[in-house]
Design brief:
Layout (H helix, E strand, L loop, with lengths): L1 E5 L11 H14 L4 E7 L2 H4 L7 E5 L7 E8 L2 E7 L1 H4 L17 H16 L10 E5 H12 L8 E5 L7 E2 L20 E2 L2 E3 H8 L2 E4 L2 H6 L3 H4 L3 H6 L4 E3 L30 H10 L9 E8 L5 H13 L3 E8 L1 H13 L4 E5 L3 H10 L2 E4 L9 H8 L2 E5 L2 H6 L5 H6 L5 E3 L4 H15 L2 H13 L5 H19 L1
Parallel strand pairs: 1-2, 1-6, 2-5, 6-7, 7-11, 11-12, 13-14, 13-16, 14-15, 16-17, 17-18
Antiparallel strand pairs: 3-4, 4-5, 8-10, 9-10
Helix pairs in contact: 4-5, 5-6, 10-13, 11-12, 11-17, 14-18
Amino acid sequence: MQVLSVTPEIFPLIKTGGLADVTGALPIALAGKGVTMRTLVPGYPQVMEAFKKKKPVHHYPLLQGGKASVHAVQIAGLDLFVLDAPHLFDRPGGPYGNAAGADWPDNWRRFAGLSQAGGDIAGGAISGYQPDIVHAHDWQSAMTLAYMRYGKAVGTPSMITVHNLAFQGQFGAGIFAELGLPAVAMALDGVEYYGGVGFLKAGLQAAWAITTVSPTYAQEIRTPEFGMGLDGLINMRSVDLYGIVNGIDTEIWNPETDKHLVSNYTAKTLKARHPNRTAVEDRFNLDRDDSPIVCVVSRLTWQKGMDILAAVVDGIVARGARLAVLGAGDAGLEGALLAAAARHRGRVGVVVGYDEALSHIMQGGCDAIVIPSRFEPCGLTQLYGLRYGCVPVVARTGGLADTVIDANEAAISAGVATGFQFAPANAGDFLHAVRRLVEAHASPTVWMSMQRQGMRADVSWDKSAEKYLELYHLLLSKKAI
């Protein structure tokens, strides 16, 4: 089965979040299951620098304002089509904005160009290559499905995965004339959205199937609270809506072999975690004692519930836990957490920024990881926590609810508990979960059981890849009809 994946980012070449992890891991997970996935990605500078031999397989005399070409390359075990369009992608900063973090004003043009190329490849533009299915990701590649719908690939099955519905790619109606779509596309059942052009909306409208990155999030986005204005359309397409939890790379995230750790360990040798714990205490200037270390590894944003965390730091300390925070984001939240660290020297430590190696040490040395998100399509840090015996304390939303088994009395008695859940955006419930954590930590038998149960959980890509494969087969069967 030939699957064309279209994405704005892919690990290990270009990454801003979990989307890149998914698009980088899925082709490898599917390779052993009879699926060849080729991924179309923008030719950002770091992507173009990753390969030397540049022999285009397709040329564009004009694509969204300039010359462009498509290169077929293999990098890091991935089969890629790279869209080399210097006028769109050869610029400093991140994939979506400049070094100061401001969005590029021509993002609509940049990702229309990517999507146009995706639609063309789906329609047979590259000699000798014809995908059976096209799989787009998020708003930046969602228009691929619109170009297919109104072009040569109208009969090719397609799917869109929504990694975060909050980002939709909405633009003014004035851009429509430059998209290269027929006039009929500027309609309610096409790309039109509240009088403008909606990239994600267009993909949701055109896709044969819609997936999100967890079953609970798939249901949440059908509600006004989480639907971000698209719940009406999503409910209309609900029969084609599926939720598939992300996996993680269990070779990179493996406490037995992880080179970032001070001390490696397994579920049978949990005492060997202790040197990692000491390293966390040293890095965050925490007192050395037996109280649990609760960590946070996150973007410091409203969505991630970091304002709630900042509001309850005093309560966390009062309940007998220490806190280590690694993250960056909203300046006000950074300041509030740094102030909390100054108030509670030895009990709270904060490192502003992101440090991949330190994030591994925190998972390998802290007792628990807190994820108080208001909404979380899937979440990966709780999966890392399970894998490393760092017990997750999570808001009951999206993929967090789907992947962590709450340590209520029944679950503890049955030996199946893997973490603690609490109501999102509820400071009182958050602190109650911390109290339950501290009480459970005081019982080595209970705590070790939770750690080992979490470490036994299958957080790999294998089950998720199987579900994507089932969905691909279902779409192909619809084509046959």
